[in-house]
Amino acid sequence: MTITPRTDHLIDLALDEDAGLGDVTSRAIFPAQHTSRAFIEAKQDLVVCGLDVAARVFARVDPALKVTLIAYDGERVKTGGVVLRVTGPTAALLTAERTALNFIQRLSGVATLSRKFAAAVDGTGTRIVDTRKTTPGWRALEKYAVRCGGCINHRSSLGEHVLIKDNHIAAAGSLTKAVKLCRAAAPHSAKIEVEATTLAEVKEAVRAGAEVILLDNMSPAMVRSAVAIIAGAAVVEVSGGVRYETLRDYALPGVDVISVGALTHSAPAADLSLTILPASRRRG
Predict the structure, then answer these.
(1) Is 104 found in the same domain as 156?
(2) Which of 41, 193, 216, 237 is catalytic?
(3) Active site (annotated) includes residue 216
(4) Among this protein's residues, is 281 annotated catalytic?
(5) pLDDT for 199 beyond 80
(6) What pLDDT, in 10s, does the model give residues 231-282?
(7) What pLDDT digit, counting tens, does each position of 47-87 carry?
(8) Active-site position among 41, 195, 201, 204
């Protein structure tokens, strides 16, 4: 992945948080000339993600730390698989350890969960998309991890396309009025998506000319009815109340995407660890 200035900023914030006052333990034990070799390995089966970010963490702590990537983002890694090796000054390596692991563990967790969700709808014609329910500041990284896991991204910001939700409709006075106002003001290239919670709202959204209709918190039976009403006139998105266990119930013919906030807001961190090798030992 390309490391952007925003990612560098996140890395610097994380390092300042963890080592802004220095690493008193490592600096006390290891002189500047002391070097070590280390590796990061998976402690569970996972989809790895964030390796370039981890490499950048090591480089930001000390350019003398040299990283070799053994795996690639999006790769399935079995328990015990080595994903990265690093050599260089021991004190710097240990200073960078936690921050590097935090990035890899978080992003690999998102990628691993995304792969699980993508596999659950394989062959149905429905795709899984993420939401904006991301860690503040981490959105680009977490959405990248979603893609590494095989799912796709919904909008990344409020400015990408129009999404008229229930509160917009309530404040505007009606769904139709909200669509008209957005169509008049939004850029010509912006799609207009409307959230519908009832079949009556689905019919209104179709009449208003919405390009995407989000079926919110509907049962599978209601989704079937809504798909019949839409009849190909708009992209169909299902959201709300969908769990991994019920994904296949909602991946119905005519449903284009299912948006799942859990991909980012509920993904558990993947288990990876860093091990330093004594100079006399080698691994792999």
Answers:
(1) no
(2) 216
(3) yes
(4) no
(5) yes
(6) 999 999 999 989 999 999 999 999 999 999 999 999 999 999 999 997 644 4
(7) 999 999 999 999 999 999 999 999 999 999 999 999 999 99
(8) 195
**Residues 70, 62: contact at Cβ < 8 Å?**
no
Catalytic residue among 155, 165, 183, 191: 165
Residue the block writes with tokens 């009449």: 207
For position 279, what pLDDT does the model report? 63
Is 165 noted as a catalytic residue in this protein? Answer: yes
Q: What residues have CB less than 8 Å from 80, skipping those under 6 apart? A: 41, 42, 43
* DSSP for 93-149, written as a single string: HHHHHHHHHHHHHHHHHHHHHHHHHHHHTTTSS-EEE--S---TT-HHHHHHHHHHT
Residue 28 lies in a domain: yes
Give yes or no: residues 10 and 105 share one domain. Answer: yes
Is 108 within the bounds of a domain? yes
CATH number at residue 93: 3.90.1170.20
Please give the structure tokens belonging to residue 9.
């900023």
| Catalytic one of 133, 180, 183, 203 | 133
User: Does some domain include residue 128?
Assistant: no
Instruction: Given the residues 27, 60, 85, 98, select the one marked as catalytic.
Output: 98
Residue 213's domain comprises: 152-259
* Domains of the chain: total: 2
33 and 79 part of one domain: yes
162 pLDDT above the threshold of 50: yes
In degrees rounded to 5, what are phi and psi of residue 230? -65, -40
